[in-house]
Write a structure and sequence with these properties.
The chain is of the alpha/beta class. It is built from nine helices and eight strands. Helix 1 crosses helix 7, helix 3 runs parallel beside helix 4 and helix 4 packs parallel to helix 5. Bound molecules: nicotinamide-adenine-dinucleotide.
Length: 286
C-alpha cells in the first residue's frame, strides 16, 4: 500500500478525472475526501471505495466558486482526515459556456456569464489558498513535505482554441499561477504543479465528441493521467511546473521563451524588486 497513512482532499471527486485519481490512490491506501457540488455523485464514489469494509473515503458538498462553501467543506475534510492533509488535488471544473450575449438590436448591456473563470480559475485559487494555509500549519511528513498541491489545468492553458475563449482564459490563469507561486513555495517544502491533459473521456463533453476523438487517437487514458499525477507525489520535489499529459505520456511543458535578453533581465528584476518590496509576501513566509 504505497500511500498508507497519507491523505488527500479532491475537488471534483464525483466524476471523471477527480474520480479516476481518487479511485487509483484510495486503492493504494490513501484516505480521500471527495468534495463536489454533486454531493450524491461524491457519495456514490465514496460508497464504492469503502465497499471493502474499512472507510477510506468521505464525501463533502462544496461549490468551489463560493468561498464560504469551500472553507466549510475543507474544514470538514481536515477533521475527517484526522487533522492532516498531505495532498490537495484541485480538479473541479467546467467546459466553456455561451458567455457573451449577442443581441445587436438591444439598447441595454447584459452581464456576461463568467462561470468558467469563477469555477476553473477563482475556484481553484480558493482551493489553493485553503491548501497552502493548511500545509503551513502542518509538520513535514515522512517525505519531508508540508503538503503537495496539484491543480488540473488543461492543454488549453498553452494552446489557444478560438472556440473556447473563457475556458482558455481560465486554464491559462492557472498555468501562470502555478509557474510563479509554485517556485515561491519551494522554500517552504510545499509543491504546487499543474496537470494539463489533452482530451479525456469524462462527463465534461459528449459521447460523440469522445468517440470521434478516440477514432483519431486523441484520447488520454485514465492510466496515463494517473501516472502523471503519481510522478508528483511522495518524495518528488518538482514544483512550479505545468505537466502536459498526452495520449503517449507526460512531459514538463516549458514556459514561453524570452523574446530577447532585455526581456529576461526585466522579468528577473521585477521579481527581485517585488520580493524585496512586498511586505505582505515576505510576511506570508513566516
Ligand atoms: N476531460 C477532458 O478532456 C479534460 C481535459 C483537460 C482538462 N480537464 C479538466 O479536468 C477537470 C475535471 O473535468 P472532467 O473532465 O473530469 O469533467 P467531469 O464533468 O467528469 O468532472 C468535473 C467534476 O467537477 C465538479 N464540479 C464542477 N463545478 C463544480 C463546482 N462549482 N464546485 C464543485 N464541484 C464542481 C462536477 O460536479 C464533476 O463532478 C476540469 O478542470 C477540466 O477542465 C478535462
Amino acid at each position: 500500500m504505497a500511500y498508507a497513512g497519507e491523505t488527500a482532499y479532491i475537488t471534483g471527486g464525483a466524476s471523471g478525472i477527480g474520480r479516476f485519481v481518487a479511485t487509483a490512490f484510495a486503492s493504494k491506501g490513501m484516505k480521500v475526501v471527495l468534495a463536489d457540488r454533486n454531493f450524491e455523485g461524491a457519495q456514490d464514489v465514496a460508497r464504492e471505495l469503502n465497499k471493502e469494509g474499512h472507510q477510506v473515503a468521505w464525501a463533502v458538498m462544496i461549490d468551489v466558486a463560493d468561498w464560504e462553501a469551500q472553507r466549510a467543506g475543507f474544514e470538514a475534510a481536515v477533521e475527517l482526515l484526522g487533522g492532516r492533509i498531505d495532498y490537495v488535488f484541485a480538479v473541479a471544473g467546467i467546459f466553456d459556456v455561451a458567455w457573451l450575449p449577442n443581441r445587436p438590436k438591444a439598447t441595454t448591456f447584459e452581464k456576461p456569464n463568467l462561470a468558467p473563470i469563477d469555477i476553473n480559475a477563482t475556484g481553484a485559487l480558493y482551493t489553493s489558498s485553503l491548501a497552502i494555509q493548511q500545509f503551513r500549519r502542518q509538520e513535514a511528513n515522512k517525505h519531508g513535505f508540508h503538503g503537495k498541491l496539484v491543480i488540473v489545468a488543461s492543454g488549453a492553458g498553452f494552446y489557444m482554441i478560438p472556440a473556447m475563449p473563457l475556458y482558455c482564459a481560465s486554464k491559462t490563469a492557472i498555468v501562470g499561477f502555478v509557474r510563479s507561486m509554485g517556485k515561491l513555495l519551494a522554500a517552504e517544502n510545499i509543491t504546487l504543479n499543474a496537470i494539463c491533459p489533452g482530451i479525456m473521456r469524462t462527463a465534461i463533453s459528449t459521447g460523440d465528441f469522445h468517440d470521434t476523438a478516440e477514432k483519431r487517437g486523441l484520447l488520454v487514458s485514465p492510466v496515463t493521467l494517473v501516472a502523471a499525477f503519481e510522478q508528483l507525489l511522495g518524495t518528488d520535489g518538482t514544483t512550479g511546473e505545468a505537466i502536459e499529459v498526452m495520449p503517449d505520456g507526460a512531459v514538463i511543458k516549458e514556459g514561453a521563451a524570452y523574446t530577447n535578453e532585455d526581456c529576461r533581465v526585466r522579468a528577473e528584476w521585477a521579481h527581485q524588486q517585488t520580493l524585496q518590496g512586498n511586505k505582505v509576501l515576505a510576511q506570508s513566509f513566516h
